[in-house]
Amino acid sequence: MTSDLSILQVKYAGNLPRYTSYPTAVEFKEIGPDLMVPDLYRNTLRQGRRISLYIHLPFCRSLCYFCACNKVITSDESLKERYLEALDQEAQRLLPLLPPESAVVQIHLGGGSPSYLDCAQLERLDRTVQRFKLASMCERSVEVDPRTFTSQQFETWYNQGYRRFSLGVQDFDREVQELINRVQDEKLVSDAVERIRSKSGTSINFDLIYGLPGQTREGFARTIAEVLRLRPERLAVYGYAHVRWKVKVQKVFDRHPLPTTAERLELISDAVSTLQAAGYRYIGIDHFALPEDELSRALDRGALRRNFMGYTTVTGDHLLALGVSAISDLGSYLIQNAAQLDQYFELLRTGKLPAHRIISRTEEDQIRALAIESLMCNRKLALAELSRAYPDTKNVAAIFAAGQQMLIPMQNDGLVELSPDLIRITPTGCYFLRSIAAVFDQYLQSQPPSGQRFSASV
């Protein structure tokens, strides 16, 4: 990256959402006792036929100090068995609410770590998945911790139809690994890559994190070099989210200085330059892919989508999410399950769905959500696109015009190009997608971002 780009990154640094949904989860409210949740699911789901299915598996062997995910550290096998039973109960309560002709087109197992389940438990989980009607070309993906990923697990998942595997790498530097309490040598990752590539049709993603304690330009460059040697099809290079008001264990980093904003910029700038020189394409915030990968091809044809699972090429009418803290996207509603295991179990025990928090999306919310997704995925937004989707809404032109007005300073900085009916993001602007999309976030405009709501955008 050029020095001018670094200056812009400092200018637009701030705490902003990643926009895997709009409105974001911080706007959700607790579900009141009078809301008939099953009716809400039934009435909403009848409007679509293609279902994306996300299943949250929160269990981990040990605590990674950087992690802000909803996770449970346990060695209690009975707790995992109880959770699998609860997932099956949740699935059985959801199934009658789906239209008979609906089918699951995408499945993603996230965590925690799905690889903390043994093969028998994975088979049990798949029996829950098989309760749903699966499309013939259903895409299956799973997140994997290389420390707990075995050949037997891989064979089980492959036989079940999983082809996309996302490995949590974070950093190959041993000192950094010790500081974040996630030690895994390079051979573990290399062995996992070799295992996955032993079968046809598989695809690999690496998750990396910059901004961790102990990281240096030289050390992170060595990590990127090892990544290039292994050459995964996709990469996610996340900025470390320091949210110690939410994740108490992150206070441990008070004893280990984190990279400054300027140092974080150097880490990601070096990584971007090296990755692009090696042939990776920048897809969107944090994400890179090889030119032949489906994400790259979807970007080229304007078919990229974004949801709670990140960037995707599969389009479902609704996202159904099972498990503790998981969030379903039903179009006009976003619904989050109980975030605590005890509450999740208790709601199911009493015959209810485990839904706990919700937001009802107004038509204006949905217009703004489409605007944000288009900018994040297609790098442009046309007034005609919004008008086609909402032809009877007078607000469309006003929302578009207000967004354009707020983008004028970014146009002056070369991040966007504005014409009367089009917003186009420039190549430089692609690195500022969160800042550009945020102009359509009315919740953010009414309550400016703070360190107590979102992670740093740089």
Question: How would you summarize what this structure contains?
Answer:
With 458 residues, the chain is of the alpha/beta class. The chain is 38% helix and 21% strand.
Q: How is the secondary structure organized here?
A:
Layout: H1 3-11, E1 29-30, H2 37-45, E2 50-57, E3 59-60, E4 72-73, H3 77-94, E5 103-111, H4 119-129, E6 134-144, H5 151-160, E7 164-170, H6 174-180, H7 186-197, E8 203-210, H8 217-230, E9 234-239, H9 261-277, E10 281-284, E11 287-289, H10 294-300, E12 305-307, E13 310-312, E14 318-322, E15 327-329, E16 333-337, H11 341-349, E17 355-360, H12 363-378, E18 380-382, H13 383-389, H14 395-412, E19 416-419, E20 422-425, H15 433-437, H16 442-446
Parallel strand pairs: 2-5, 2-14, 3-4, 5-6, 6-7, 7-8, 8-9
Antiparallel strand pairs: 1-17, 9-11, 10-11, 12-13, 15-16, 16-17, 18-20, 19-20
Helix pairs in contact: 3-4, 4-5, 8-9, 12-14
Question: How would you characterize this protein structure?
Answer:
The chain is an alpha/beta fold and 458 residues long. The protein is 38% helix and 21% strand. It contains 16 helices and 20 strands. It has helices at residues 3-11, 37-45, 77-94, 119-129, 151-160, 174-180, 186-197, 217-230, 261-277, 294-300, 341-349, 363-378, 383-389, 395-412, 433-437, 442-446, and strands at 29-30, 50-57, 59-60, 72-73, 103-111, 134-144, 164-170, 203-210, 234-239, 281-284, 287-289, 305-307, 310-312, 318-322, 327-329, 333-337, 355-360, 380-382, 416-419, 422-425. The strands form five sheets. It has a nine-stranded mixed β-sheet with strand order 10-11-9-8-7-6-5-2-14, sandwiched between helices. Strands 1-17-16-15 form a four-stranded antiparallel β-sheet, with no helix packed on it. The chain has a three-stranded antiparallel β-sheet with strand order 18-20-19. The longest helix is centred in the N-terminal third of the chain and has 18 residues, at 77-94.
